[in-house]
Design goal:
single chain, 212 residues, 10 helices
Amino acid sequence: MGRITGLEEIGHVPPKVRQMYGAVIELLEEGMDMEDIRVSTITERAGIGKGTAYEYFDTKDEIVACAVVSQIRWMFGWLGEQLEAKADFGEQLSFLLDVVEKKGHCSHSFLRFVHAMTSNSEFNRMIREKMNAEEFAAYRPANVFGRILRQGVERGAIRRDLPIEYMIHCVFSHLLSYMMEIATKDCFRMDAQSLRPFVYRGIMGELVAVHG
């Protein structure tokens, strides 16, 4: 199928590429720095020959960037589907906090997204370029949360007087503090279990429409 971009539907990605993606994510989640990963490390973990990698990618950076972008795309695609199926904003928010707390790969994906958006390294510029592609638009975290928030506004559950962009910022900032506490255990000197109800009330208190 030629060169891989990381923007393909997962069902269209060759099995050997999916194995490489899985290997990259495993290595990153085990704490290996991107700079220390080698093509041979990836292919050995994936159980394929080193030459196979170059059938689909030109460089190690391309393999890692495509793996990260593909993971972010999958995670936020799945998350969006799950959230849209919930009955109301409070249920959506509770589910989102459950995902952050219980599914480590989702927290890692969100934090990778934040890092990619804030770092000026060549590697992260490569990731941003891929995520700015039209094929990725539906999976950008801001667009995923934006759809959920617009749904809440249309249902009359969320305030109409706040810009959607600000509401996205509100959700992101609260979620990020919660993820940081889970990831570091002592970032805010408040354990995640104690922090969670304040995160929930903070978002609900700022965004939820008051009736009557």
